[in-house]
Design goal:
This is DNA-binding transcriptional regulator, HxlR family. By secondary structure, this protein is an alpha+beta fold. It has helices at 15-23, 28-36, 42-48, 54-66, 85-88, 91-101, 115-126, 179-187, 197-212, and strands at residues 40-41, 70-73, 80-83, 135-142, 152-158, 163-167, 176-178.
Length: 217
Amino acid sequence: MPKRATYREHGDGCAAARALDLIGDRWTVVVIRELLLHPKRFRELQDLLPGVTPAVLAARLRELGEGGLLSHTPDDNPARYGLTEQGKAFQPVLEELGWWASGIEVADDDTSLTPNGVLLAMLTVARRLPRRSDVHCELTLYDDRLANPRDYTYSITWTPANLAVSEAPSNAAAPRMSSGRFAELLFDEPVPDAPSDKLLALVKDFRGARSGIGTTR
């Protein structure tokens, strides 16, 4: 298949068009989503992105690398893929894109979220909420739609002044649940119990603030 011409090659000097040359192909944005909070191997990406073919995934990873957004550790066997600082800088754009799309009505369907997906959804909403709790905790999530899901552990900082989620080493003491279950804790009624006091404080703060400003997204 011939390589398609870029917007720039068509004479378009718009910065937004240049961004689409990097991230505008199908699957590219969700690949970035899955690499934002946790580096992953090729097979992990395949598992978390049902529907993507190996050839398309390999092409998207290559294009992201050529665009300076992707790094990988070829000495690992198999290699692990992560994002460069330029790639990580896409996170606020992804959150804004998610917020914009959350206002578009879609039919109810049987969909769920990956571990990265649910945490980025939480961040997208929480940045717009007043936060009252001071919580630092770890959480292990897995995608229970998969036959043999992998665990991903995250460090969460939730304070009035700071909101951050990052990769954390595996921790047997961290609460563990499916990403779908965590989405229920955050977004579904009624308010359920959480498996730890810190996580319960975070969930109650999130849901209370969300309810208080009348957020329906």
